[in-house]
């Protein structure tokens, strides 16, 4: 044995014990914390109306030599012509991978890769994003390439063919993972077959898309006046404004005068969704021994007066992780699920969907579902405890600074508010957030629970091994079919290439 | 206090290096040790009022043995169940009930042994189905349940989490891998002492209450991650085939039979062996003054007695593979191929060249995508990566067959790309492109307190936190000749295992 380290440790230990002037309390409530004063950044300190059209949020941050830019674009799948489902996704991908300006797809990708610049382009349901993360020394070259991507994409034919083939490959896997089936069917039930969110690309819709469709889709929406920008990183504010003005100016639109007729302001985002009749819906997936469950109810807009009480109620019910009731009951008490959660999102363009989700072995699916229904009823019929209310409210209030943990997060939050209109309608949203949460009472929580957690509207989706799930468990005499008074429907799988229901 | 005079930032040229993008940005880590041997890493970062904190236990599924596979992960779950003062209103009664519970569990374990015998004799087909349980076992289950109900009266449900949540902690979680177990969260800067109180408390006197319901939770996690995903179990099988001697052959989630029989006494023994302070590293990143908090760390964490014995070293070395291994699996997924080669562990001198090699093959401008997706078109997607773990490493290449092509064609095309790299040095520009991406990645991963924390956790858990600052220079020093040499040395036929996956021909699922 070496002896010197032991001597050192002994000496240090003596010092350490001497240093323990204060005893360690037995409970954390006895600890004293210094006050933490925090005010969130103010959007208008960073907001710039660019002459070239977009509003930009500009956040200098010199810690690392990087620039991080995201452009939000008013476009989305809701603008896809009928029969061309997949066009928005295809256009989004091709922007970064189909060549631009004088560069072929290969040249563009090689140059960006050599600069270690990350370019991402995507068109989702109600917005498009183009993002670029690169070393600040390469900003000018990167922005020049980005200008071409935004305004002069080439949509190379061979890349369209390639991407269609890759999309078709991933469509073939639509029924392979039960979580994918669950996500899609939950959408169909909570929004209806015809709602734009539920229009999926099919083999036919992909086949009907030609290069001209991509050009038109891009040309219609990729105008600077449709952009909102968030940028953070290693730059001077004034320089960045000049660089952005240059980036968004001189879009070579005159080259495509024949496409001019497609240009119009984006139409309003549709809100014509429908919510399925209350009941249990089951998709049989015999290969898996774990049922996936999503329970759904119609929800609210994010500017609803019930929004804050809804946040707190949801946190207590199942949104607050281990501190929530569902986690305590379904996971900790009963060991029935690894993940159990609830969500109460405020919709931006149309009301959100309130949901509870969990996964449990087939034989205990019905029992776990019955516990979730019980917890929904319980929070609607009796007030939450002061302690529960306190934990939920303090959680939102004390973790608030984390929302703005990085400059990139700040610019993204502000740009998103600008894009979705919240900056215009509620510019002090973040400033007032903690006060609004603090004002929520136990009565408010019960009121929103009673108003929205309505069992007569509940839709329960189950994906899993039907025979085992319906068999139930001898220790728990609960039957799935009886969960909602006998309202039970079997849903067929869908053909992955047409999305039409398969004949059983 | 002790070691304060050792507190010199690892790098004083921090700001200077910021302006030189070709150099990596150094993370100014302050390292110290507590009196009980616990290692401490501190990174001051003052631009947001929070601290991301973690501790890494140098133990993972590689420290398990057959019979208790999955215990490192189950143990991680148990560390959220509270302490002698957190999680209960009456510790004395709680301990009495826990002891009663173990007596019933001992009897249940006897019954389980009988039932396992019945499985071996072909009388029942498993312990999962309730119909297979013996009458005595069902009776004991009821007894156990009544003790659970009794204990619930003195429990404060998930109190450990509730204290953190109410104090504004976020991202509280933990993970278990083959080589490490890490517990982390982010707290407001003024609540750093709470973090010390909570974490030192659960290391010092954890109470494993609700052990058996949590064991069920872990089994649900296994079902979710492995058994209910198209490639989960087939990849578990492939992994078990690839590793022969090293305990990387089982998944961190453990074998089903083991996970469902691990006992609380086994967890107690595991804790005593692997959670001694000299086997732990504390890491803090954020808004604090390093020299001010070291005495406080000593006060809270230094009180944990040093373990009497050291955690046993893992002595197994994977024997050199001498024959190619192959498997085919019919699955609910597109046809694809996965190939593993035995390579080198974390920090090995060849690991940097292997990382470069993987990036030359991977990405949209890499050799595999250009050769197999854009070129011959045999694949619709491809991937390559070097995994350098603590005790060993492997190189992974994979590809999904394009319509009209087979996994075997993809496999052959992968070998053709390897052969080129074994015969001809990579051109300078291609090598530089890959190195540029490693250099930029050094900045990108230092995005926030939490991302710096995760980088330190991973490097320290795999072998040495210093690699967070040292790896880039070694990567940038790799030459084209090095890349060619490692491609030739490691990517050989006898050193590989190949899994081909074909789509299960069950009910027709497309109209094709």
Verbal overview:
The complex is a heterodimer of chains A (504) and B (512). Chain A has 504 residues and is an alpha/beta fold. In chain A, 40% of the residues lie in helices and 16% in strands. Chain A folds into 2 domains: 220 residues, Cytochrome Bc1 Complex, Chain A, domain 1 (2-Layer Sandwich); 213 residues, Metalloenzyme, LuxS/M16 peptidase-like (Cytochrome Bc1 Complex, Chain A, domain 1, 2-Layer Sandwich), CATH 3.30.830. Chain A is built from 18 helices and 14 strands. Chain A has a 6-stranded mixed sheet with strand order 1-2-6-3-5-4, with helices on both faces. In chain A, a hairpin with a 4-residue loop joins strand 4 and strand 5. Chain A is globular, with a radius of gyration of 27 Å. The N and C termini of chain A lie far apart (74 Å). Chain B folds into 3 domains: 206 residues, Cytochrome Bc1 Complex, Chain A, domain 1 (2-Layer Sandwich), CATH 3.30.830.10; 68 residues; 179 residues, 2-Layer Sandwich (Cytochrome Bc1 Complex, Chain A, domain 1), CATH 3.30.830. In chain B, helix 2 crosses helix 10 and helix 3 packs antiparallel against helix 4. The longest helix of chain B is centred in the N-terminal third of the chain and has 30 residues. The radius of gyration of chain B is 26 Å and the shape is globular. The termini of chain B are far apart. In chain B, 49% of the residues are buried. The N terminus and C terminus of chain B are likely disordered. Chains A and B meet through helix 1, helix 3, strand 5, helix 5 and helix 11 of A and helix 5, strand 4, helix 6, helix 7 and helix 11 of B.
